[in-house]
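DATA CLASS: polypeptide
GOAL: derive structure tokens

***
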Amino acid sequence: MTDADIDAAVEGAHIPSLLVAIAHLTGNADHLRDFDRPVYEFFGDGQGNLPPEQQARARSLAAEEMRAHRDRGAKLPPRPPEAAIRACMDFIAGADIPEPYVPFLTEELALDGPEARELRVAIDAPAAAKADFPVVVIGAGMSGLLMGLSLVQAGLPFTIVEANADVGGTWLANQYPGVRVDTPNHLYSYSFADDHAWPKLYSTGDVLHGYFAKVADSHGLREHIRFNTRVEAATWDAAASVWRVRLSSGETLTARAVVSAVGQLNVPKYPELPGVGDFAGPAFHSARWDHGVNLTGKRVAVIGTGASAFQFVPEIAGDVGHLSVFQRTPPWLGPTPDYHDAVPAATQWLIDHVPFYANWWRFWLFWMLTDGILGAVTRDAEWSGEGAISAVNDELRQALTGYIASQVEDRPDLLSKLIPAYPPGAKRMLRDNGVWIGALKRPNVDLIDEPVARIVPEGVELASGRVVGADVLIYGTGFHASDFLVPMTVTGEGGRDLHATWDGDARAYLGMTMPGFPNFFTIYGPNTNIVVNGSIIFFSECSVTYILGALKLLIEADAKAMTPKQDVHDAFNTRVDAANAEMAWGSPGVSSWYKSKSGRVSQNWPFALVDYWNATRAPDPADFELR
């Protein structure tokens, strides 16, 4: 560390993270009293709006302490006292953290090192008892790999069945131009395996696929995976208390437990329009992108303006001859100026050289999304305004409307097409750095919001009868999110079919277990999707902890089967339904992939993250029937 290195790094630092990292170099947090607490705003400066004088003083203090740390030999300092850590947490959060959040956030901070997060549940049983408990995991995406790694650490035999030729799940399947994550990558990573070497703040799909492949390789998971193989059916054998899992290869695996990690967004959805399949030219879904089709100079029609189209339209707009984008409803756009940016050199330097800077920066990212804007998307029963569900939601709506309007001052004809009529949060909000509207403003791009009547061989026919001609048709129409576990068949006790039981409206206790289906668990199951708070990897880690606890309970109690009690399952879902009805995404009359065919919100978790963390520490035996 040269003085020049240090001076350059502090200039580009996240000041609140830098100030609390200094507590690790000094052993106390007394210096925080000399600075205002950060105040974070939706359109803030990203530095907690600290006065410029305080930011300059913070950089000077940090540089001085970093030079002293260097001169001491750059040895890892001792862990600060708990009171100092708590002071740091309150400072970087910009508020006194409520006491129920402290254990939850302390675990996420991971000051004892990432290895402390790996072994989540130790199973105290003889080796023979563990060896007699094989587990089948369905899917080798983010959640399936996490489950497999945890089973390795717990000492249980397992097989992962993966339909694709490699690991990675959605980051392998989705290879359309521009595909990337919309959660900051230093948060969208396993808590125990963040290598801190992300090239982008929000990584592209190929980088994420490489990350998950690296985790699979470094932990020896590939030897447990059956690639290019599908689970066709899983049937509970009550006499033997095992699952018989039939594979597409013709083989049948026997398992004491089955864990589905297939996710919600894996089966492409095509629009319910007459003529789908009649188009004369190349036609494909964004999740099955046909890289053999050259779009250069072609007339391209894109149906849909959801998250996938939002990413690939700007990538192809400059290459095609003409682009027609067909929109049913516009998305709300969340300002994210750094969405395509590389990780700044200063940030990477601080991560590499300053003890615990990475922990505190991740903590800050996590806190900002812990409850996110949950309060701004919660209904106020006293509110009576139009287009919003509360005064705070209306403030957010006005701010986002102004943000969108500022991008089309030179194209007022687009404004009415770009402002959603539904409340912010009712549908998925998309991260925006201006490239979406920039693409729509191009002279070779048309945004068409007239209803589509049908697909015809020469293009897309509108309700008016006008046909928009196209050479290539791309469907950006999402996934069958509410059709959980399709197309496999799952048969539980007494020949009970899971899909018939759900009848198009999937429900599970804590998103993981269903009455009548013993020892069968789902990760990223019903009502475990998040909208404005957190990372889905956090949810999967919570689920894996819970599922391992269930397997521990079975093995240590020498039980054959466990299934949630019906009244426990039903009471949980009643609470979830009531809470979802009070959220923006539960707004009546607004269709989205968050809802099942019945109109029930079957995807989303309506509570705070800490509630799921507390609920999944370990299964309560009283919630289950153990046999």
